[in-house]
Write a structure and sequence with these properties.
This is TetR/AcrR family transcriptional regulator. It is built from 13 helices and no strands. By secondary structure, it is mainly alpha-helical. The chain starts with a helix and ends with a helix. The relative contact order is 0.07.
Length: about 280
């Protein structure tokens, strides 16, 4: 199992470098397998086409970033220090995977529905990540401003990310992370001190808390838990649940039935209970 997983990763990493250097359309499958030092048949074991490979590249980088930030977060009790270290990891990964980001930003690839869905999931995770860190740092009194602060935080982080990639800047990541946290303090404490009225009064459906929790469950089922018949049914159930949330009049019987299927996976019970409390 490990050997197979390593081959897939080798193919993904080789394609990232080649796509960034030569472009998506002018890189052949043969060139990818040559660079990865694997047989051509290995490519088609994992990917039906280069377009399917792109989906895996998005997933690969997203999961790599999330996993490393989760690991560093667990090592610190102070939420501010934990957040600063997460930012360091984010900016460091950005610098070390610049070829990947360049390729994704060049707009060479048509965005199909699967990639579009993955991008939306990434937005959900980023927004949820921002809100969780902001709530931990600034506490209950800051609840009113969480949505606006999450938007502003993502804007700051994405702005420096674009600068690092597009202009070949070479900031020290620890210094940039600390600077970002101080600017966040300016924004957040400033909103409170000036008694600002929040700009974000209502969130779109996909950023509502129930959708964020559902997405968190789907990500865990797809990436952290061994695949089997139970997890596959749970993934189908969470997708049905998210579709139900989008309806004008969601049916309670459908929601409850799907939750029962999902909570059969022990590792999701914490998130499923959060979802139940929110719905009820």
């Amino acid at each position: 199992m490990t050997e197979l997983k390593d081959k897939k990763t080798e193919i993904i990493e080789a394609s990232i470098e080649l796509f960034a250097k030569k472009g998506f359309h002018t890189t052949s499958v043969q060139e990818i397998v040559n660079k990865a030092n694997v047989a051509k048949g290995s490519f088609y074991t994992y990917f039906q086409s280069k377009n399917e490979l792109i989906f895996s590249i998005y997933t690969y980088y997203s999961n790599l970033t999330q996993n490393k930030m989760d690991q560093v977060k667990e090592r610190y009790d102070d939420p501010r220090e934990a957040f600063k270290k997460q930012l360091e990891i984010f900016f460091e990964l950005l610098k070390s995977n610049k070829s990947l980001i360049v390729m994704l930003m060049q707009g060479q690839i048509s965005i199909d529905k699967d990639i579009e869905s993955l991008i939306q999931q990434s937005k959900q995770r980023n927004f949820n990540w921002a809100k969780e860190n902001l709530a931990a740092i600034y506490g209950e009194d800051f609840q009113l401003y969480l949505n606006d602060a999450a938007i502003l935080l993502n804007g700051i982080v994405n702005g420096y990310a674009s600068w690092l990639i597009g202009d070949n800047a070479d900031f020290e990541t620890d210094r940039l992370a600390a600077f970002t946290v101080r600017r966040l303090d300016d924004v957040c404490y400033g909103m409170q001190q000036q008694n600002e009225e929040p700009m974000i009064q209502e969130l779109p459906d996909y950023l509502q808390e129930r959708s964020l929790i559902a997405q968190e469950i789907e990500w865990k089922l797809s990436n952290e838990i061994e695949s089997n018949e139970t997890t596959e049914k749970a993934i189908e159930a969470i997708q049905v649940l998210q579709e139900e949330f989008q309806k004008e009049h969601p049916q309670s019987v459908v929601i409850q039935s799907m939750l029962q299927l999902i909570e059969q996976v022990e590792e999701t019970k914490k998130e499923t209970n959060r979802l139940r409390r929110l719905i009820e």
